[in-house]
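tool=predict chain=A
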Amino acid sequence: MSKIEGALPLPVSVDDILAARVRISGAIVHTPTLISQTLSDMLGCKVYLKFENLQFTAAYKERGALNRLLQLGEDAKRTGVIAASAGNHAQGLAYHGRRLGVPVTIVMPTTTPTVKVTQTQGHGATVVLHGEKFDDASAYARQLAKEQGLTFVHPFDEPDIIAGQGTVALEMLEDAPEIDTLVIPIGGGGLFSGMATAAKAMKPDIRVYGVQADLYPSMYSHIKGEDMACDGDTLAEGIAVKQPGELTRRIVERFADDVLLVNERRLEEAVSLLLQIEKTVVEGAGAAGLAALLTHRELFAGRNVGLVLTGGNIDTRLLANVLLRDLARSGRLARLRIILQDRPGALFHVARIFDQEAVNILELSHQRIFTNLPAKGLSLDVECETRDGAHLDRLLAALREAGYEVAPIEVA
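tool=predict ok
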């Protein structure tokens, strides 16, 4: 960070955030901040969860969107607003725009899943599909804003948006004043900027960490002065931002104790743990804070850590895949490849071992043709359910002791 940047006044103050709270009060859910005893015991620190997935549109983005809408002039309210978004910003803006009678247009890439398009239309917005990438949609949204006299609402790099998101920290630290560390997902940086501004004003000694998916380390790269690629198919699509905001990066530079990276496996584990332990559905980006605790346990040992479950908008099929992959990694679900001789009774003898070890067979698949085995050989894929990894190991040992060649088909 240059001395000039460090000397610049920040675009948002705690007073802006306090004013935003008054402005949006009554139209936004004051979501609970609760201790997770199980996660606390597991991770060696006291874990507080802020359930922003309980907002009406299942994400914190409503806060900034509403704060921005409420400060529009009368002409802008009549003409309407426009934004580029394929996610939670679109739904938050559309929902509160309809409530307030403000026309909302959302430009989405043509590759946006149909469910997101229909959800946004369901909140009363006009959806325009343009371009294959988000950058294309964003450029077109700005073009339409000029042509039609609409007000462009940025998803993260506007003071009113940042101030609205900062109300999350006000609630957290008032409801759980013992929190001494915040771990906040960063995409463009709007949530982190608002929360860090509020938190540092309320508790100057609080530690504030940002989290990014290691496939999209845009803010991390900026803070560290590195040039890292941002690309790939991440579970945390809500924070898959290639270019951080101009305003937000100044605030992150000022307030972040560090920015941490998490990999896809930890993100999947975090989503699964939150569903299993807290019985709450969280999208990949919303689970990034917990993924950071799983990845950097030593950094948070003994501290009172606040995590924001930023949203719960995850595709149900994707969620099912995440849960099944987690079961496979833990040994509770396995697919085994067993080499057999193609003769009567071969399957019966294998199945008897599964029965003896009390392992449930879910699915069987023979392969006689597409294999490099001799003509009288075959491979048998068995999908099965066990109690845990140790139970699976006992099954493998029993099969090998009976003379079978067997190997697990690993999950990435």
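The first helix runs from residue 3 to 7. The domain at 330-408 is CATH 3.30.70.260 (Alpha-Beta Plaits).
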